[in-house]
Write a structure and sequence with these properties.
The chain is an all-beta fold. The protein is built from one helix and 28 strands.
Length: 393
């Protein structure tokens, strides 16, 4: 039978080999667990990874084989396994295992191999990866080498860990900070408790690999309208596809706000993992105007609105505008009863959102006046415990 016919007739070829030809051998046992950090969410299937720190005593003059075997395998199993190796400088887990190293191929079989041939580094982070299954599955990792190799399990970075599932849907698809809808993004209150160590928390958001995301930790513990340098405690940096890692060092115990946003306006789910060296709590913050009636409008300035209240109530008035590249004019909002100004607020053009919270107003008609860059769209939202009427003058 020719080799060409073998390739046509069979999908997989298994070859026996003798591991004893390698003088140094290591065997480790592990298991993929659905509680593992999700590195990426594609069609609801998470990638689970166990990670190991590999130290090679004589890099550049040896060959190291990694043999991964999963113990439970069924013919109709839809999960795939792979081994990836990333050059490292210290014993630290890697957040993103999608690129940046020697990438193994995901295969739907019981065994897979990865070879470091004359490795350029003496230290590697080894990712034992499974994609597409939600079942717990044990595995065996065998390491064969010509020279001594030390393999150590890399535990979770920090001992306290919480996982929150969320989504961008409808109004909560707020977009990046330059969007006038940024304040609608999902936000979380993070409570950091005192401990023996100076608090440190790591926030990791994961979603579909085609979506660019960002995580930002800010002061306050309440919903934020916009972000600036003074309010930001830590950020994951530039938007990155599928995953973002925000590492906040040397925090003070207290309450903070975590904002997760996407660069593209796409409806999808996400997973948020929060790790800390002290006890932490994370809870979703209610949406803006939660439990209240809303009236909205969008117009280009200049424009004035008439607000009619059917009965006495408090109202929340929000105006937002995308920052304009050619104007530094502030965004201002005022509420008037006839000629008398009841309340007003003005914010720099870079903030892009102004908000008014009133005391109880009597039933009647009021004027909402917004100032800002002319001929530029402004978004107006009014919330109340009863339906209100909003019209333009």
């Amino acid at each position: 039978m020719s080799w060409e016919n073998v390739c046509l007739a069979f999908d997989t070829l298994f070859i026996n080999w003798d591991p004893s030809i390698f003088p140094h051998r290591t065997v480790l046992q592990g298991a993929w667990d659905v509680s593992d950090s999700a590195v990426r969410l594609d069609a609801g299937n998470a990638v689970q990874t166990d990670q190991y720190h590999v130290t090679i005593q004589a890099p550049g003059s040896t060959r190291v084989w990694f043999h991964l075997e999963r113990h439970i395998y069924e013919c109709n199993d839809k999960s795939y396994i792979a081994v990836h190796a990333f050059p490292a400088q210290e014993q630290q887990r890697r957040a993103n295992v999608d690129h940046g190293g020697l990438m193994g191929v995901y295969v739907n079989v019981a065994h897979t191999l990865l070879c470091l041939d004359d490795p350029c580094s003496s230290q590697y982070t080894l990712a034992i990866s499974r994609h597409g299954s939600a079942k717990r599955s044990p595995y065996t990792l065998r390491v064969y080498s010509d020279k001594p190799v030390d393999v150590q399990t890399l535990p979770r970075t920090l001992p306290h860990r919480s996982i929150v599932k969320g989504s961008w849907r409808g109004r909560s698809i707020g977009g990046p900070p330059s969007s006038p809808h940024f304040r609608h993004n999902p936000q979380f209150r993070v409570t950091v408790h005192e401990g023996a160590l100076l608090p440190r928390i790591i926030s990791m958001i994961t979603t579909i690999s085609t979506l660019s995301v960002q995580a930002t930790l800010a002061k306050g513990g309440e919903r934020v309208l916009s972000l600036d340098d003074a309010s930001i405690i830590a950020s994951s940096g530039a938007y990155s596809r599928g995953i973002a890692l925000c590492d906040a060092l040397a925090l003070q115990p207290g309450v903070y706000t975590l904002v997760v946003s996407s660069q593209e306006m796409v409806a999808t789910d996400f997973s948020l993992v929060l790790e800390g060296n002290v006890r932490t709590e994370i809870v979703p913050l209610p949406e803006e105007g939660a439990g209240q009636y809303r009236r909205s409008d969008v117009r280009s300035l200049p424009c004035t609105w008439v607000l009619t209240l059917p009965r006495a109530m408090k109202v929340l008035v929000c105006a937002s505008q995308a920052p304009t590249p050619l104007s530094t004019a502030p965004l201002s909002i005022s509420l008037l009863d006839g000629d008398r100004c009841l309340t007003e607020q003005s914010v720099p053009g870079s903030v892009a959102c102004a908000i008014l919270r009133t005391e109880e107003l009597s039933a009647g008609t009021y004027t909402v006046r917004i100032g800002g860059p002319m001929h530029w769209p402004v978004y107006l939202d009014v919330y109340g415990m009863q339906p209100v009427h909003l019209s333009t003058v």
